TrEMBL record, chains A, B:
Coiled coil segments of this chain: none
InterPro entries in UniProt: Cyt_c-like_dom, Cyt_c-like_dom_sf, Cytochrome_c_Peroxidase/MauG, Di-haem_cyt_c_peroxidsae, MauG/Cytc_peroxidase
Designated name of the protein: Cytochrome-c peroxidase
Domain Cytochrome c: 43-151, 195-309
């Protein structure tokens, strides 16, 4: 913790010159603006959008990626833990899909290397979409319009699961949220955030929050222990990264979540136990940096965090192609 | 049945002149093109769109109108019967919301007079969204952006359920699907449908299907007994319009469903028991008009029915405003 605080104090000194005047070009802030996506295969992403909204990727025919990563709601379901097949309760809070391409790995414990690998997981998870890759591929191969669209893109006979997850990942790459007020400020518009928000940012840096929440996604680029200064109390059984590495020191170590659009992605933490930003900031201060913020300090940081809400993706509701007589039918109530 | 057949024969004679040449201006077809919506309060409809996609109208915070009337899927969930709160199985097939404004009444048994009255039902139904109007109004009144938006439209202090259902209904009025190939043909483009499809339409008229499935929605404008020529066999317990009128003759009488977009709104019938149009046409012929179509006849009618798929509404995915600290939280797993 001492090292982290020292780093932050240095960062604070470096950036304090910008107070009230917007950042100077010569001062490198520890948070970077989100860059617009440039290298996207539009045709593939458009197919991926359909698949993202496609309930036939689930056994029930009812749950799609968008059910738990709702693009109307900051890419989350705003539930503590998600509702899966047969109304099963998920084990962990669904992280936002917005800006997920900026994460160093996917899932809270980083068990998937990238978006493509992630996309295959919930489809087969019996507590989530409860399908199988075999079933999903059978379903898609029975739908003429999908067959045609995949063929056009991949020039390959028959749809394969690798193509499905690749398309979903390509769509997800487009789900970035640039142009938040904070990014406008970073880019030189000193009026984009107000004095309280700016002071919140300074405090966010000075107090050490920035040591984990930095970079373009304001997080997402490291794994950290939840409960550094004091243990984090939860009834949630997730053990974090130890499940991936097997190392004892990775117990309760999770991927640091992005703070982009944090105003929209409540409830907070891997257990989804906290409903408001005020509470979340209070708890993080205690358990991560061993500090009690005053009410005014808390309000400043919350005000700053709300400047991180970016432009939400503008998407047309996809029209999904109809099943054919050969399509395996959904099994919502089968045991 | 005799009366119906006679009517149809007359209709057929009247319209047979159009065979292969598109309808003449002097021949009035029993199906009318869908007209574009003209009188819509756009601001109200836009608010209604948000509410249509709003999972906070349900107890769980997971189910929205769009869950069962999915606008990516012909305004249906493509399930035999829907999945409701706590994964409860619904009692009846969810009818499409597309062109629902053209129905003479709402729900299969017509128990709601209009879209506004309908919209209030599923919110409070313990097997569907399982909320209450009081809860929903509390939730919406706790969300600053909704309060502002309702205030702007209704100029009234505090959101009321009547405003919520009015907004949803206004949005639903926009969900019409004009410009199907069949409508293009009706409007004079003789190349819009092919010979098989045209023959299917002629057979549809000659055989009596048109006696119930007519007008702009190709249905939706009368209540009819399911099982006229012979009883319709089903394990579904819905008794139909008798539940509304109490009259014995209304047993197994249902609102005739629209055939617009029927290619997209499988499975078919009030019990959702039939997956394909081929089967549906076969069964309807047997139980309603006491006829067995040949395979070729069946194929013609199915081909005609597929010309009724109209332009699906082009909608931008709405961005829903975040809850506040005062918002009652969803209760997905509460008993």
């Amino acid at each position: 913790m001492k090292t982290i605080r020292l780093q932050l104090t240095l960062m604070s000194i470096l950036s304090v010159g910008s107070l009230g005047f917007g950042p100077k070009a010569s001062v490198k802030e520890p948070i970077e603006p989100i860059k617009p996506v440039t290298s996207v295969n539009k045709q593939l992403a458009e197919l991926g959008k359909k698949l993202f909204f496609e309930p036939r990727l689930s056994k029930s025919g009812f749950i799609s990626c968008n059910s738990c990563h709702n693009l109307s709601r900051g890419g989350t379901d705003n539930l503590a833990t998600s509702i899966g097949h047969n109304w099963q309760q998920g084990p962990i809070n669904s992280p936002t899909v917005l800006n997920a391409s900026l994460n160093l790995a996917q899932f809270w414990d980083g068990r998937a290397a990238d978006l493509k690998e992630q996309a295959g997981g919930p489809i087969e998870n019996p507590k989530e979409m409860a399908a199988s890759h075999v079933l999903v591929v059978d379903v898609l191969n029975s739908i003429p319009q999908y067959v045609k669209e995949f063929k056009k893109i991949f020039n390959h006979k028959g749809i394969e699961i690798e193509q499905v997850t690749q398309a979903i990942a390509e769509f997800e790459k487009t789900l970035i949220t640039p142009n938040s007020r904070f990014d406008q400020w970073l880019l030189g518009n000193k009026d984009a955030i107000n004095q309280q928000e700016l002071e919140g940012y300074q405090l966010f840096k000075q107090s050490g929050c920035i040591s984990c929440h930095n970079g373009a996604a304001v997080g997402g680029n490291s794994f950290q222990k939840m409960g550094i200064a004091q243990p984090y109390k939860t009834t949630n059984e997730a053990k974090g990264r130890i499940a991936v590495t097997g190392k004892e020191e990775d117990k309760h170590v999770f991927k640091v979540p992005t703070l982009r659009n944090i105003e929209l992605t409540y409830p907070y933490f891997h257990d989804g136990s906290v409903d408001t930003l005020e509470q979340a900031v209070d708890i993080m201060a205690k358990v991560q940096i061993g500090r009690d913020f005053t009410k005014a300090e808390n309000a400043k940081i919350v005000a700053f965090l709300k400047t991180l809400t970016g432009e939400q993706p503008t998407l047309t509701v996809p029209i999904l192609p109809p099943s054919s007589s050969a399509t395996p039918r959904p099994q919502p109530f089968a045991q």
